[in-house]
Amino acid sequence: MAAAGRVRSEDQFLCSICLEVFTDPVSTPCGHNFCKSCISEHWRVSVPCKCPMCKEVFNLKPELKINTFISEMVAQFRLEVQHEPNISSSDQQAAKPGEVPCDDCTEPKLKALKFCLVCLSSYCQTHLEPHLTRSGLKRHQLIHPVENLEDRMCRKHNKPLELFCKTDHTCICQHCTYSDHKSHDVTPLKEEHEEQKPELKKTKAEIPQMIQERRLKIQEIQRSVELSKNAADTETAEGVEVYTALMESVQRSLDQFLEKIQEKQRSTEKQAEDFIKELEQEICELEKRSTEVEQLSGSEDHLHFVQRFTCVKAAPSMKTWTKVSIRPASYEGTVARAVSELEDKLTEDMKKVVVKAELKRVQQYEVDLTLDPDTAHPELILSDDGKQVHDGDEWKNLPDKTQRFSECVSILAKQSFSSGRFYFEVQVKGKTDWTLGVVRESSNRKGEISCRPQDGYWAISLRNGNEYRARAGPAVLLSVKSGLQKVGVFVDYEEGLVSFYDVGSSVLIYSFIGCCFNQKLIPYFCPSLNAGGLNSAPLIITPVDTE
């Protein structure tokens, strides 16, 4: 173990210029140590003066003095080297698989401790000794053992790779500087190593960040895949629902078609059965008469014959069957009519099912809205929870704020939206007049309002209890089934879409498409005037019922 400790001590006392143990060691202002003669010679040929280790430049050539502390340590080290006994090979370990063996050992080969870049050999402690004691060998550069020596040799000159060509960014030997790399920017490997260490440190610091960025990207991709799978599952479920409904509709149409055919056939069979029954009854009566006629023909009793002949002669009341017939039922055009009816029914059913699925999909974008009293017309009355509003038919003395509606009996929600999708539902049950939709934040709220997209309003309305209109400017008359009780409003900001749904029957009422939104959108509510109690029911913001 003492020998190993001595080897480590030698590394500490080597001059980086001559690679020998210090002679008259001196220290530079930057704290590095060299032989006095080595550093003096270096500064004689190198102008300006700079440290060979850290490259610090000294504008004035430093005055060098012997470092007595290091000098004493070097003297002690030399004394230990002279008196330390050699370690026998029995105290050393044999090279294990994967370890570099000593090139000078016979079998068994011992584990190498150093590799000489001059001798190009690996040495165990015993065979390393001459490099530590002999002045000629002590100039050789020792490094940790290497297993693949050919990787450290120039393939062209078979010399150690000890230089770095900055021009070609490759390691070269000394002979390369006279041939392929002549006039190139060449530096010792040690100097290049010192220059590259800061870059390595920077790279080392960047790698964890790059790893983290890629892990986050993996999570992002996995999340996208998960969202895509969820969307695919939802779309599949909706598609199955649509196609199941359509198949059920086709099956019902087929059943009705078959029933019509069978009904016609049953009617024909019934008519035939009735005719046959009547004919069989007449045949029975005729056969009975034939028997009586036959009996009367053989009678010799004049009185009996005459009396019976009158009865037999009188023919029974029977139908004339000459013009009676059974016509086969006509099925011409039955399939065509059934298919045409099925097509119309499928179109209607498909619209219903698709809109129902679409409504279910947009309902997932439900937002929780509350009405903003600062925007309310002075006649409006709000519920305590901010979910209901109706016209109180009485003007309240309220501050005339900029955001308040002055003439139109309207109110806005507190919430506004400038991106994405949102959906809300409003109960309109019992009302004869109302208007619902969304409004641009900067749109006019004073005086009479033109409720149309050109003025920043996207809405539909009910007038006189039965006139539904889309306020498209000009208004579009809508076909809405009676009994509309709840309206769903869906907005896709980026798509420029505002859609209105009859929630109860899952029917799309109307859509504004291709809208250009460049401001915040705010949900808009107009319960309209009380109308003497005829329109007193409130507009109610209700939660979505997904059942």
Task: Describe the secondary structure blueprint for this structure.
Blueprint: H1 2-12, E1 25-27, E2 33-35, H2 36-45, E3 49-50, E4 57-58, H3 68-83, E5 114-116, E6 121-123, H4 125-133, E7 142-143, E8 163-165, E9 170-172, E10 186-188, H5 189-297, H6 302-313, H7 334-362, E11 380-382, E12 388-391, E13 411-412, E14 421-427, E15 434-440, E16 457-463, E17 467-470, E18 476-477, E19 486-492, E20 497-502, E21 507-512, E22 521-526, E23 539-542
Antiparallel strand pairs: 1-2, 3-4, 5-6, 5-7, 8-9, 8-10, 11-12, 12-23, 13-22, 14-19, 14-23, 15-16, 15-22, 16-17, 17-18, 19-20, 20-21
Provide structural commentary.
The protein is an alpha+beta fold. It has three domains: 1-85, Herpes Virus-1 (2-Layer Sandwich); 228-364; 366-542, SPRY domain (Jelly Rolls, Sandwich). It has helices spanning 2-12, 36-45, 68-83, 125-133, 189-297, 302-313, 334-362; strands spanning 25-27, 33-35, 49-50, 57-58, 114-116, 121-123, 142-143, 163-165, 170-172, 186-188, 380-382, 388-391, 411-412, 421-427, 434-440, 457-463, 467-470, 476-477, 486-492, 497-502, 507-512, 521-526, 539-542. The relative contact order is 0.06.
